[in-house]
Amino acid sequence: MAASIESLLEEISGVEDPLEELQSLKTALLSIPVSALRDSVSGQRFDVIFSLLNSNQRAQVELCVDILERILMALSPEHLAQNYRVELQAGLNHPNETVMILALTQIGRMVEHPNAVTEILNNHDILRAVIQCIAAEKMAVAKQAIQSLSKLSHSKPGLDKLFQSDLLKAMKDVMATSDIVRYRIYELVVEISSVSPISLGYCANSSLISQLIGELTGDDVLTRATAIEMVTSLAHSQHGRQYLSQQGIMDKISNMIRGADTDPFSSLYLPGLVKFFGNLAIMDSPQQVCETYPAFQNKVFEMALDPDPVMIGVALDTLGLLGSTVEGKQVLQKTGEKFKAVLSRMSQLASSGATELRVRSLDAISQLLGLESEQQTEDLLALTESWFHVLSKQPMDMIRDISTQPFPELHCGALRIFTAIATQPWGQKLMIRNPGFMEFILDRSTGQTKEAKDAKFELVGSLLSSSTSAEILGSQNYIRLKTYLREGPYYVSAVASVSTEGAD
To answer: What angle separates helix 124-133 from helix 97-111, to the nearest 10 degrees?
Structure first.
């Protein structure tokens, strides 16, 4: 096979219009198993294919990219670094985005390899060209460049090269291209910062993080909205949160929430500020965050009662997130009537809002009501039961009504609420007392989509996982549920067909 690849390469170099020959080479390469490909191509030189990338014929360029993609992935990163550095560098400046992505992908492989990365670190021009790719028109090219540079920063020599050489100036120059490109550089910096406290230190010393934080309070409200997203990503790591806290960023964001009432454009960035604290509460402590920054919790309640669907949606997601933890449930319970008013609003939205808000309400309610078996203390069971009865005078009927509507996402959302209460004794008692409820659970003819069948199966599994269900539901129901679980989510009972003599 190596011989035929060699002869095909010779044929390609000898013709003016090599499309047919390129197609033959592609077919030949595809016929070689991946395991044998390296041996077939490592002794060849593919300069002719690289040279054919310099063409205005898109079909030719794309065929060459397909061929090179297969060949280069078979070769070791070290082999590429030693033999194809110049060609890959040229690919970074190519007008066709598929060529740029090919080059960036291979450079990404090289920077992860301990020997190949040295070749890249010693080649200033390649790294400068990768940085310039962040300003590419096509987002896919920029993403690949960000990914490659992010991988490079996983080592100290990589961090030194990016932040302690004139490549830092190259990054700052690229940032000046446009607002969009500036935020791509911030994305890279946040990604690098998240790796370790050391990498965060490099980014902080480069002044790029303080520049990003400065954008939080800038005049442009859209810029603020994007900046808060980046800062939220930075808060995903513990060392990132610690840094933001030391810089007083939590207080700054809390003050922005307070000041939002007097800013006519706050609706553009307020959801991001609330999401920031919602994420913070889940990663650290709901109680600590809600007590230290009361403006956050007050604003979430306010947004849940707001007429603006965007505000309501963010409030629902945040309340679901908070209420998914025991500590969060206790924090919400402490607010008394305030939270009950919000819960009533969630119930109204679940019953009659716009479909998207109905789904988000149902999801939030199921998170608020869920309790793992080890969390089921007397107090917490009383809490979830009391919340369930705030939803409606007849909450079981209300949720069942939603589950029978012809929208799969509503059907599944309602089933998830039943799943949340199915492990709790009070939930099981309500189910057995509700006329026809066990038949509803065991009826496989409702909800025909895969998602609906999976949701019903999860509900049955949830009921059976509880140590109290056999006693509360009764042995007959318990055995029927066990049979359902054993048969699996997609079981279809066989229907006997009777043939009638003389029928068609």
So the answer is: 130
Alpha-carbon distance 305 to 289, whole Å?
22
DSSP string, 323-340: HTSHHHHHHHHHTTHHHH
For 395, residues 6+ apart whose C-beta sits below 8 A from its C-beta are: 388, 389
Q: What does the DSSP assignment read for 166-215?
A: THHHHHHHHHTT-HHHHHHHHHHHHHHHTT-HHHHHHHHHTTHHHHHHHH
Extract the tokens encoding 301: 């309640």
Return d(Cα 169, Cα 152) in angstroms, integer.
17
Tell me which DSSP letter residue 122 carries: T
Q: Strand runs (DSSP E) across 344-395, as ranges?
A: none
User: Per residue in 418-460, pLDDT tens?
Assistant: 999 999 999 999 999 999 999 999 988 877 789 989 999 999 9
- The residue type of 302 is E
CB contact at 8 A, 233 and 194? yes
The answer to whether residues 38 and 75 touch, using CB atoms and an 8 Å cutoff, is yes
- The label of the residue with tokens 């970074």 reads 92
Pairwise CA distance, residues 176 & 85, whole Å: 28
User: pLDDT tens for residues 346-365?
Assistant: 999 999 988 999 999 999 99
Tally Cβ neighbours within 10 Å of residue 29. 20
Coil/strand/helix, residue 113: coil
In percent, the amount of the chain with pLDDT more than 90 equals 76
What per-residue string of b and e applies to 300-319 under the rule 16 or more CB within 10 Å gives b?
A: bbebbebeeeebbbbbbbbb
Answer whether 288's CB lies under 8 Å from 327's CB.
Answer: no
User: CB-side exposure of 424: number of CA atoms within 13 Å?
Assistant: 26
Cβ proximity of 339 and 333 under 8 Å: yes
Taking phi first (over 0 means left), then psi (-120 to 50 degrees means alpha), and beta for anything else, what does residue 293 get?
beta
